[in-house]
Amino acid sequence: MQGNMHKGKTALVTGSTSGIGLGIARTFAAQGANIVFNGFGDSKEIEALQAKVRDDFGVQTAYHNADMSKPAEIEAMMKFAAERFGGVDILVNNAGIQHVANIEDFPVEKWDAIIAINLSSAFHTTRLALPAMKARNWGRIINIASVHGLVGSAQKSAYVAAKHGIVGFTKVTALETAHTGVTCNAICPGWVLTPLVQKQVDARAAQQHISNDEAKKSLLMEKQPSGEFVTPEQLGELALFLSSDAASQVRGVAWNMDGGWVAQ
To answer: Fewer CB within 10 A of the end CB, N or C, for the chain?
Structure first.
């Protein structure tokens, strides 16, 4: 559904060249927001993605290839957005990576990378976005956490630690902006069939010598009672609600969209 809820505003979505981030970026573009994309990928494919969003929704787009593990590059990206569009009105901290291993086998460099990209990057974008948002007395910060920000799973120590951290950071940001027109909330998805999750499905299929479809079903039924994946589009619509005037008093929430995972 197209509309003008955010016409003239700018949304920066980290990790938005695929998966959840792309779904959210498209949802905001459909409401008239200009989009700053960020993420890795083939440069021609990213150019085509930008062109499609421009053509589909009649908005302006830009792309910055900041490595979200590097504070200096994050600062460059936020400066780029300010110079290109006059600032960031809607910040969606979505960038994330995963690694699965027991704690005693967990590579230190993987731990450091996951904490940097999944947690610290949100601190850096937020600290840089807040001054202008407060000056305008309007802003929306939406952190894409995970059900793993609410519960744990074995072999995901760094990811679970980072996502619990994101939920805590969301609460503090919400408290510090409580008397302003800036809100901060977290979305906690369950299983979403992103490239990240597809890798886990592929690994399960190989390990258990089953088909990819069987691996998907097996993965879902372990945790997600609905037996269905959450879609990036559904997450985009939730993010859109959290950015709306109707949600102006939704502050510091960790909102799970997880097919019943955390209800168990």
So the answer is: N
